[in-house]
């Protein structure tokens, strides 16, 4: 399902941090959201999934107005991987991932065998099944990140929002996670909007890119045309060089003199 939002405006205590942000993520595409610290990426993702309530908004998932619904109905359409783990109780990893199934359970029903199967599949996809019986307060930051992503996968919403999903992950797991998510876009039409900080990882996986500058969406479109030396140098306020790797993928490096 596609994700389209129009004119999202949001203020914290009267200070506007999002200014009429509109974006369009086609069904089955991986869209990266890039911007400097404090540019409004998390705020935008929280507006889209209903944690925050903008002054004005129109959010459509496959032409359905999800800004008019909250709670379970919204969670069936949109999942979120938060920037930091939001879990403070010592659940097992499997219990945490099973929480992703809550929107699909009626009343006080407990997860059943099918829910367990879905949770295990999510963990296996991320190479994290070995963590299932461990407690979330007794595993590493990266392991907890994998569990949090698995919970969102188990939610099986057609649109997934990820807030810096590679936080805490080692080099292998960063790319394994991103490639698995991109594969879900291709194979299962998952629609993804992910805030990311590394333009080279974005170049490796994203179909589309949105650049956010001080709460304004200043550029968006297909990754090839938006990810350019000129745009990124302006966004990050530093000189960059752009090159191509053997496979044709773009690669960016800062031009900086570091003191040794
Ligand atoms: N709870 C809050 N109350 C007041 N201001 C906030 C709050 N949360 C964020 N802000 C401010 O809103 C702006 C956008 O913050 P946001 O967290 O959305 O940025 P971000 O792009 O996700 O940043 P980062 O890359 O550092 O995670 C910033 O100026 C930030 O200081």
From TrEMBL:
Concerning CDD domains, the annotation shows: ABC_Iron-Siderophores_B12_Hemin
Alphabetically, the GO molecular function entries are: ATP binding; ATP hydrolysis activity
Q: Per the database record, which ranges form the ABC transporter domain?
A: 3-239
**Record's keyword annotation contains ATP-binding:** yes
Q: Which UniProt keywords apply?
A: ATP-binding, Nucleotide-binding, Transport
Write down the superkingdom of origin: Bacteria
Entries under PROSITE patterns matching the protein: ABC_TRANSPORTER_1, ABC_TRANSPORTER_2
Pfam families (alphabetical): ABC_tran (PF00005)
Q: Which InterPro entries match?
A: AAA+_ATPase (IPR003593), ABC_transporter-like_ATP-bd (IPR003439), ABC_transporter-like_CS (IPR017871), Metal_Ion_Import_ABC (IPR050153), P-loop_NTPase (IPR027417)
Q: Does the keyword Nucleotide-binding apply?
A: yes
PANTHER family documented for this protein: METAL TRANSPORT SYSTEM ATP-BINDING PROTEIN TM_0124-RELATED, MOLYBDATE IMPORT ATP-BINDING PROTEIN MOLC
Q: Per the similarity annotation, which family is this? A: Belongs to the ABC transporter superfamily.
* Protein name, entry field: Iron complex transport system ATP-binding protein
Q: Which organism is it from?
A: Desulfosalsimonas propionicica
Ranked from the top, the taxonomy reads: Bacteria, Pseudomonadati, Thermodesulfobacteriota, Desulfobacteria, Desulfobacterales
